[in-house]
Design brief:
Blueprint lengths: L2 H7 L13 H4 L4 H23 L2 E2 L8 E2 L1 H12 L1 H16 L17 H19 L6 H27 L3 H8 L4 H22 L2
Antiparallel strand pairs: 1-2
């Protein structure tokens, strides 16, 4: 069966071809139903981020804990697309910044060293979601590229914030906020890059 035939067979009632996995859910039904589904997807993405962020491994030599939040951001971005993923990550950021203890280790507010990474989550969600809409999540190599970019964006926002927060230079911030997490990030990227193309292949059967 060709890709066009597959897309036609799985095309929702409104005729749109699904570009990300969430489109398979939100693309059918009435306009009101679609809006409600989109809200549910956004809230589900936020809850996923909260749950993943609570799975942490504190490291004694850095204020940045190891968590599954980055994995959740990458997966949410690719699954929901840029708009819904940005809304999910943005809601997560806003709730925590306003005082809800939903960040890693029950943190909240903005005045803590790893808050910059949470800003990076929003950037990563948008970037990975935008690439997924261009079918970057259909193949392992392109998914790796998208998730690597998303991870770099998390660091691009997180490391400068960490440096300013701790009053250290950029080299020290990299040693505290990047180097200890490279192996874990490689595992997360590999997991997302295996999961998403496999899911699309399964849906095409």
């Amino acid at each position: 069966m060709s890709t066009e035939s597959i897309d036609a067979a799985r095309r929702p009632a409104n005729g749109a071809v699904p570009r990300v996995l969430a489109d398979l859910v939100a693309g059918a039904g009435s306009r009101t139903g679609v809006q409600l589904l989109n809200v549910a997807l956004v809230l589900g993405g936020t809850l996923f981020l909260i749950a993943a962020g609570f799975i942490v491994i504190p490291l004694p030599f850095t204020p940045v804990p190891v968590s599954l939040a980055t994995f959740a951001v990458l997966l949410t971005g690719a699954s929901l697309g840029p708009a819904r993923a940005a809304a999910s990550a943005g809601l997560y950021l806003a709730l925590g910044a306003l005082g809800a203890p939903i960040f890693a280790d029950g943190a909240s507010g903005v005045l803590f060293p790893s808050f910059g990474y949470i800003i990076g989550y929003v950037l990563a969600a948008v970037a990975v979601g935008a690439l997924a809409r261009r079918r970057a999540d259909r193949h392992v190599a392109s998914t790796v590229g998208a998730t690597v970019l998303g991870t770099l964006l998390v660091y691009a926002a997180g490391v400068p914030w960490l440096a300013v927060s701790l009053g250290v230079d950029l080299g020290t911030a990299l040693a505290l906020g990047v180097v200890p997490f490279l192996i874990g990030d490689a595992i997360k990227i590999a997991a997302v890059s295996a999961l998403l193309p496999s899911t699309w292949k399964l849906l095409r059967r």
